[in-house]
Amino acid sequence: MSLKHVEEYRSADLSRSLAEKIRRISTRKIRLMEVCGTHTVSIFRSGIRSLLPETISLLSGPGCPVCVTAQSEIDAFIALARTEGVIITTFGDLMRVPGTVSSLQKQRAEGRDIRIVYSTMDAVDVARKNPDKKVVFLGVGFETTAPTIAAAIVTARQTGLDNFFVYSAHKLVPPALTALMSLSGVNVDGFILPGHVSVIIGLDGYRDFFETHLIPCVVAGFEPTDLLQAIAMLVEQVETGAPALENAYGRAVTDAGNPAARKLLQEVFKTAGVAWRGIGVIAGSGLKIRDSYAAFDAEKMFALALPEAKEPKGCACGEILTGSKIPPECALYKKVCTPIDPVGPCMVSSEGTCAAYYRYHQDR
User: Fold this and answer.
1) What's the pLDDT tens digit per position in 247-259?
2) H helix intervals, the chain
3) Which secondary structure element, helix H or strand E, spans residue 58, and what is its range?
4) Structure confidence by residue, pLDDT tens digits, 77-102
5) Residue 144, Cβ neighbours under 10 Å: how many?
6) pLDDT confidence of 9, banded at 50, 70, 90?
7) 113 plus 220 within the same structural domain
8) Residue % of the chain over a pLDDT of 90
9) Dihedral (C-alpha) 20, 22, 27, 29: value to the nearest 10 degrees?
10) In whole angstroms, what is the distance from residue 223 CA to residue 39 CA?
11) Cβ 302 vs Cβ 290: under 8 Å
């Protein structure tokens, strides 16, 4: 047996042991929410739900960056794409997200210069090679990707690049957790906290939230054993009535996180109240570019005429992002809305809950 097969066997054996532990200690109905799109996909792909007792329900929360981006922000992206002399640079997930009247994909088909890049430094390079154009990078994501966008802005300033801009639609996870706790109809007994975000903000990034709400919280990695370990820890907390803030991803996440990345965020961005799809405006939950870097802020440097933002008719993406509904409860799911012809962003993004349900759920 090869080393790879040995490791796979050990992982499967550990997963079975963890699943048995969960079944053994679980006595009541428990609703756990993961707030990471990568966790959502991993849970479905690995069949974790099938290993759990019927008492445990897993809900997918607002952990998909593209999905939580407000409709007004998508409309702003499209308006920028239609601005004369502008090159749009973006990650691929944004291309097919429907705005109120169009999408980036449709705009590119109509001849707008919209380029998919794989890093923010690629966008900086596009600006360097096209000095006669204004290059805008569409900044979407959480604490995981925001430091790289901050680094690109700093690089642009240091190199005297005056045609590079960022539209910052970045969002912060802890304020969203606080908002979820106040929403009616959201009944969560514990949170599976995101691994990638936690690498940046550390376990301490959730300390205020936990101490305010005293709800079970565990940071998880992305392998099936990581997730099952986190679920087992959460179930034990609920069953014993001893909520805690714990770290099941110690090989990557520390209490302090990444101080250098957080310092960079603090230098370039300031917090602001921003809108989340399905939740509304959350105080202090967004990252906007500081006045000291205003020359790189697309939101300030371009005058945009935007339509009245309207959600796709009949789309339940907002309710799915808060755990109020699951995809099969949306009237459009698999009927009108499919990965080939998506109505809402939850079906567009590879990390979207609807896309994961469509691809992996047994009732498909």
Assistant:
1) 999 999 999 999 9
2) 3-25, 37-45, 48-51, 65-68, 71-81, 104-109, 120-129, 146-158, 173-182, 195-201, 207-213, 224-240, 259-268, 298-301, 317-321, 345-348, 353-360
3) strand 56-60
4) 999 999 999 999 999 999 999 999 99
5) 21
6) very low
7) yes
8) 85
9) -130
10) 9
11) no
Number of domains in the chain: 2
Average pLDDT, the chain: 93
Per DSSP, 190 falls in state E
Reading the block at residue 100, the tokens are 């109120």
Residue 307: Cβ within 10 Å count: 14
Q: Do 295 and 333 sit in the same domain of this protein?
A: no
CATH code for the domain of 35:
3.40.50.11740
Residue 321: name the closest of 153, 168, 159, 183 by CA: 183
* Pick from 354, 299, 319, 287: nearest CA to 140: 287
Please check whether residue 206 is in contact with residue 177, taking contact to mean a CB–CB distance below 8 angstroms: yes
CA angle 67, 183, 190 (to 5 degrees): 80
Written as six digits, the tokens of 344 are 């809402």
